[in-house]
Design goal:
The longest helix is centred in the C-terminal third of the chain and has 19 residues, at 286-304. Helix 9 crosses helix 16, helix 13 (195-207) packs across helix 14 (215-222) and helix 14 (215-222) packs across helix 15. The chain contains 19 helices and 11 strands. A hairpin with a 2-residue loop joins strand 9 and strand 10. The protein starts with a helix and ends with a helix. It has a 5-stranded parallel β-sheet with strand order 2-3-4-1-5. The chain is 44% helix and 17% strand. It is globular, with a radius of gyration of 22 Å. The protein is of the alpha/beta class.
């Protein structure tokens, strides 16, 4: 079994007087992680929010009634918690009851679960986001040398646990993931009237990885208005399929201030959407694919090591650009991302003159391990 870094982070928060919220996409291993918590503890009650009986239990229930149902257990796990109406208010009652029972709620649909929970549980929760497996977790599992050898495959097939554990069947597993699981939450949402256009939008985003996106242009490609495109993108982000990277702008008039790039949380999902599993050395899009891999893996690494930074790209109207920026601790870290280890790059003088407290690195396959394993 692959040890997930998140397990230790959650374990350290057990029995600290707050509700624990675990969120993430379907099939990233949330249930497996919760079962490990079960294995390492006793007196556990597992509730599945998909079950009508469980939904009825929480329906208009008082704190006393819920605690009587939980009596005799040290930990109560509520899986698929987003299926339970007003779950945030019910959890608030438990949190305010001074009970020593540890409640863990998990869900795969952020646009339902987050909105239900955030306001009622302000100051009463520890929230964790679970990603697909990461480069760092695989290094911890079987060593850096082996994982570096697997790097070309990871860039193509990604890190979903089922993909990683089925070497040789990656395409079949990815097709199952995208057909059966990827759209399940968002397509079941009652206001999604054009699932075919949503899938067209996803494919368009897959082709534009690493490029600035225009909601108007995407709308024209998908026969949707720009507001609907923006709404769909927000929902896709909240379902942990994609994430947005905003542009960095502080001082210069010619900096792009409202632009954004969109990346996928997992390279395998991105490639499955366009049905392209060709090896890196023969791909026309390897630059964009490597950029998506590096930025998504860096995001996982920062989260796993509790390193909180702001993330951006930078570009001017004169086409000067920096692939990726991190801002934290009063300093800016700038990165150019290149698949070719011999590629040259430098910071634009306009940027260095304006933002002087900046360091710069080029990230290639040769130094990716240092970039992703560093805790700085």
């Amino acid at each position: 079994m692959i040890e997930r870094f998140l397990y230790k982070n959650i374990e350290n928060k057990l029995f600290k007087g707050k509700i624990i919220i675990l969120m993430g996409a379907r099939q990233v291993g949330k249930t497996t992680l919760l079962k490990k918590i079960l294995h390492d503890n006793d007196k556990i009650l597992w509730l599945n929010g998909d079950e009508m009986q469980v939904q009825n239990l929480f329906n208009n229930a008082s704190a006393d009634r819920l605690l009587s149902e939980f009596e005799g257990n040290k930990i109560v796990i509520i899986d698929e918690a987003q299926r339970i109406k007003n779950i945030g208010l019910r959890l608030k009652l438990i949190a305010d009851s001074d009970s020593d029972i540890q409640v863990i709620a998990s869900g795969s649909s952020a646009f339902e679960l987050a909105n239900e929970i955030n306001e009622p549980l302000t100051g009463r929760q520890w929230k964790f986001q679970m990603f697909p497996l990461s480069f760092g977790e695989m290094v911890a599992h079987h060593g850096k040398l082996k994982e570096m050898r697997m790097l070309p495959r990871r860039v193509i097939y990604g890190y979903y646990p089922e993909v990683v554990m089925n070497n040789g069947s990656e395409v079949e597993v990815l097709k199952l993931l995208t057909d059966a699981y990827l759209y399940k939450d968002i397509l079941s949402w009652e206001n999604i009237k054009h699932p075919d256009k949503l899938q067209t939008l996803l494919r368009a985003l897959a082709y534009q990885v690493g490029s600035q996106v225009s909601y108007n242009e995407l709308g024209q490609m998908c026969s949707l208005d720009s507001k609907t495109v923006e709404r769909y993108i927000s929902l896709l982000e909240q379902c942990y399929i994609i994430f947005r990277l905003p542009s960095y702008s502080r001082n210069l008039r010619h900096e792009l201030k409202t632009s954004r790039k969109i990346y996928f949380y997992d390279n395998g999902i991105r490639n499955a959407l366009i049905a392209d599993y060709n090896a890196p050395e023969i791909r026309q899009d390897i630059g964009a694919l490597w950029e998506n891999f590096v930025i998504s893996e860096r995001m996982k690494a920062n989260e796993n090591h509790n390193c909180w930074v702001n993330r951006y790209f930078w570009r001017t109207k004169q086409q000067q650009e920096i692939d990726y920026l991190e801002e934290g601790g009063g300093k800016i870290h700038a990165y150019e991302i290149k698949w070719n280890p011999r590629a040259k790059a430098h910071l634009p003088k306009t940027f260095t003159d304006t933002y002087q407290n900046t360091d710069f690195k080029i990230i290639t396959p040769e130094n990716i391990a240092d970039f992703l394993l560093s805790k700085e």
